[in-house]
UniProtKB/TrEMBL annotation:
InterPro entries: 6-PGluconate_DH-like_C_sf, NAD(P)-bd_dom_sf, UDP-Glc/GDP-Man, UDP-Glc/GDP-Man_DH_C, UDP-Glc/GDP-Man_DH_C_sf, UDP-Glc/GDP-Man_DH_dimer, UDP-Glc/GDP-Man_DH_N, UDPglc_DH_bac. One of its GO terms (biological process) is polysaccharide biosynthetic process. Substrate binds at F152, L153, R154, E155, K207, F252, L253, H254, A255, G256, G260, K324. Residues 317-418 form the UDP-glucose/GDP-mannose dehydrogenase C-terminal domain. The active site is at C263 (nucleophile). This is UDP-glucose 6-dehydrogenase. NAD(+) binds at D30, K35, T86, T122, E155, K266, R331. Belongs to the UDP-glucose/GDP-mannose dehydrogenase family.
Amino acid sequence: MKIAMIGTGYVGLVSGVCFSDFGHEVICVDKDPRKIEMLERGEVPIYEPGLDRLMNKNVEAGRLSFTLDLERAIDGAEAVFIAVGTPTRRGDGHADLTYVMAAAEEIAKAAKDYIVIVTKSTVPVGTNAKVRDVVAAANPDLDFDVASNPEFLREGAAIDDFMKPDRVVVGVETDRAAKVMEEIYRPLYLRDFPIVTTDLESAEMIKYAANAFLATKITFINEIAALCEKVGADVKAVSKGMGMDGRIGNKFLHAGPGYGGSCFPKDTKALARIGQEHAAPISIVETVIKVNEDVKRRMIDKLVDLCGGSFNGKTVAVLGVTFKPNTDDMRDAPSLTIVPSLVGGGARVRVCDPQGKREGEHLLPSVEWQDDPYAAAKDADLIVILTEWNEFRALDLDKIASGMKSAKMADLRNIYSADAAAEAGFVAYDSIGRVGLIRA
Ligand code: UDX
């Protein structure tokens, strides 16, 4: 089957590559000539483990190609996926649908034969119906269907998530469109991965509800963590004990410095807006959005305490600035709130991140970049673990502590323990939702 993919961002590129690996003929389209040139050279514009290898394998097999020309891409295609950005609109928190609607119109003008227009971007309920109307108005003679096919992949684990999903969600209006979607996902279908086929509005809603639920789960444990610190409980034990209840589940119960990334902050805001607009407010999600900001501020308070009340004149080493490991993505990362407060408070900040430098250099000015965590910690007053990259999970704590001016650690991902820190010679150690160590 021939498939066109519009947009070569995270979701578009990963989906395009994986569909080609299913055996389909995929053409990925983007308006950005630099991106297309890079992809044609075999280079992946984002950092995602395994993506370059899989992409080049399918390019070599002749199933995957890239173009600036949308008309050529959809010529003969049975399905075209819209995977363009839906950023938060300035001012009102809504998802900005300019790119989705522009793509729909371009498809309408270029398409000749029956085609299924599938939205993969996360879009508010009602958008697929709008896409249908826009296409019908732009090309009244075109034979087409629309479908909603939200994507649930996580950055850093994108290929595995796409190839082995918990479920595939498909919203359609006709059997004909359902058959095309089934054909596209046949390799998953044959391996018993469940496909939920429903109407357009429910499919759109599933994506927002799922992301908002996960953001809520994280925020819930983050608030429990704050209470654990006050009552002397250990949040790691609490989430373990909670997670063993099959109704709760143990995933997304890791307390940390607040959720970030390209989806949770944007999608929670969009869902809150949709609720308000329909006079059915999702107050729990409105609260989650607010509490996640409080969580980040609480992290800054911890760091101020560890620095003895002020950042002024201190040297702080920050390990990890991307919003999570195995990505170079800095969108809405907690580091974007925490690092500027350190710098603004007069600290000298050294940053070490395996992939964050390229984007981070623009987003975090006035910091010093170090490739090596030990060099970053040298003569520092405080080391902060902000993102749990594997590289930071097995540090030689003795070596870190002995090189520091005052050996203090803020472990905002609960990788180490107060005992391990004490043994290594740290004089202060604080983490999330656990009793810390203060010697000085
Ligand atoms: C998320 C969804 O998981 C995915 O289904 C959707 O398609 C896109 O949004 P992603 O943003 O890539 O994926 O990252 P994810 O692994 O979900 O983490 C999101 C944020 O939550 C990160 O900042 C992470 O550090 C934080 N998090 C996650 C926690 O703080 N604790 C947890 O237990 C899990």
